[in-house]
């Protein structure tokens, strides 16, 4: 079985942020992440993977633009471990409290025993109960709020909150380090109990533009509504996408995903 890791970026340059960015980081930047997923298949070649990406995501470019801007996809070698972690579902019980858990394996903390068997937990607290029997617990260091001038040229972040208990998603943005916003969400209690919440940073935004940050947030809100359903996304209002290139690329990805799903259904019907 051959595995591929697909990452799709919107590449734009903002020369004003260059002076705040380490030159090696500046030269290596890939753009703003729009989507990522994994593909696998018996003897699936890179060309096969490109064809699948074209059909699913509507992307024709497979390298970062040398000049100008644009959306492109990177296709990288992967393996069964990452494919199963991000794509495979789990339907089991918590190793600590025995609460039923069901969903994507990546959304539930786990540990792997010496015999190679992986055990999942309903929350990080449950995993901590087990880990405390093995390793001492230590608190993380406090970090101060910093703007892009002292943050490597990063203007903002898009983050995701998932409530495992209610199966609800929330997309947000911040121009500070994301954990400050996460702390505010936890204190408000509006997204759920902290033991049910998963926090993750989706992408960095290295374009000094609040409008662009808003558009990227809107992109991800629309994507989660499309992928999980309006009823499973907590965002009350959906920011309007005003950048035509992002709208076109989003529509292309939706159409590509629909075609990809239809293609899979036809293949399933033949079997």
> Using only CA atoms, what is the Rg?
20 Å
Structural class: alpha+beta
Give, in spatial order, the strands making up the sheet with the most strands.
2-1-3
Strand content: 25-35%
Based on CA inertia axes, which overall geometry fits?
A: globular
Distance between the termini: 19 Å
Name the average pLDDT.
Answer: 81
Number of β-strand runs:
10
Poorly predicted tracts of residues: 135-144, 241-247
Order of helices and strands: EHEHEHEEEEHEEHEHH
Number of domains: 3
Q: How can the largest sheet be summarized?
A: 3 strands, antiparallel
Number of helices: 7
Helix content class: 25-40%
Protein architecture, described:
- The protein is α+β, with helices and mostly antiparallel strands and 271 residues long.
- It has three domains: 2-82 and 246-270, no CATH class; 91-131; 152-240, GIY-YIG endonuclease.
- The protein is built from seven helices and ten strands.
- The strands form four sheets. A three-stranded antiparallel sheet has the order 2-1-3, sandwiched between helices.
- Strand 6 and strand 7 form a beta hairpin.
- Helix 6 packs parallel to helix 7 (244-270).
- It starts with a strand and ends with a helix.
């Amino acid at each position: 079985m051959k595995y591929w890791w697909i990452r799709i970026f919107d590449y734009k340059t903002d020369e004003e942020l260059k002076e705040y960015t380490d030159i090696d980081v500046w030269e290596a930047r890939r753009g703003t992440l729009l989507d990522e997923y994994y593909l696998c298949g018996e003897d699936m070649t890179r060309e096969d993977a490109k064809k699948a990406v074209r059909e699913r995501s509507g992307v024709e470019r497979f390298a970062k633009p040398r000049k100008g801007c644009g959306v492109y996809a990177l296709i990288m070698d992967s393996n069964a471990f990452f494919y199963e972690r991000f794509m495979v579902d789990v339907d089991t019980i918590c190793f600590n409290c025995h609460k039923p858990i069901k969903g994507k394996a990546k959304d539930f903390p786990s540990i792997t025993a010496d015999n190679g068997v992986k055990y999942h937990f309903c929350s990080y607290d449950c995993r901590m109960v087990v880990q405390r029997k093995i390793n001492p617990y230590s608190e993380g260091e406090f970090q101060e709020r910093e703007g892009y001038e002292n943050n490597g040229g990063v203007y903002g972040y898009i983050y995701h909150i998932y409530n495992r208990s209610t199966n609800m998603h929330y997309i947000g943005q911040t121009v500070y380090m994301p954990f400050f916003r996460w702390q505010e969400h936890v204190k408000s209690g509006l997204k759920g109990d902290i033991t049910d919440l998963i926090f993750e940073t989706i992408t960095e935004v290295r374009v000094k533009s609040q409008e662009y940050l808003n558009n990227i947030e809107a992109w991800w809100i629309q994507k989660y509504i499309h992928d999980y359903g309006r009823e499973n996304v907590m965002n009350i209002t959906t920011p309007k996408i005003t950048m035509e290139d992002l709208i076109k690329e989003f529509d292309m990805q939706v159409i590509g995903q629909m075609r990809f799903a239809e293609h899979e259904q036809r293949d399933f019907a033949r079997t």
